[in-house]
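Sanity check

After download, print the first record. It should look like this:
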Amino acid sequence: MKQTFIKVLTGLLFAALFLLSGCDEKTSVKTIKEEAPKLIKVDKTYQTKNNSEKVAQNDKNQLPKVDLSDIFKDSFSLEPKGKYMLIIFETDQCPYCAKLNLDIHNDKKLHNELKSDFSVYRLDAMKNRMHKLLHEGKPMDADTKTLIDIYQVNSTPTLIFADKNGKSIFIVPGYMPPKQFEVTLDFVKSGLWLGKDRKNGEVYKALKEFYEKNGIMVGKK
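Expected structure tokens:
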């Protein structure tokens, strides 16, 4: 089962060419590498790599914790529940994770879309606990360490998008500004990923094209 999961996710090598990367975190289950965001030509606030890094640095000890209990479900049981599924790997010390959560809290459109159309789970990469995972309609038991290995999580935040059967569609390794996040959710709901081969990066190519059609220029300064 684990080998099948990893094969399905080999398209991540292609994704790394244009998606974001997260912040530096070290955990007891895996070392999360440090790599600042490579993207960001999305809006006036996030026009350059340097600007995004300054925002993260300035906010590191300032961002408030927000209550997202109406969004994040109990991560003991990871299942779609008739919706698309989103699993977010975070840590409490990660400033990009805090900013992502603050965006979800403050952006009404993003907040409402996640609440209505997605089953969202937060997994703390620093804490190894057991989970019941529904993948492609089949239940399995796995701890956080195993899930980190399965999804090849190397940075926080890392976002795993899955269909209504729990089958992973694609992975975004890193922080996304609200507009990009919203467009990503629209891509999932559009179904444009259906029939695409994730092993050779077709899904990520379709996502990149969808971004560009919606004014999100990735992989460019």
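If your output differs, re-run the checksum step. Summary of this record's structure: The chain has one domain: 2-213.
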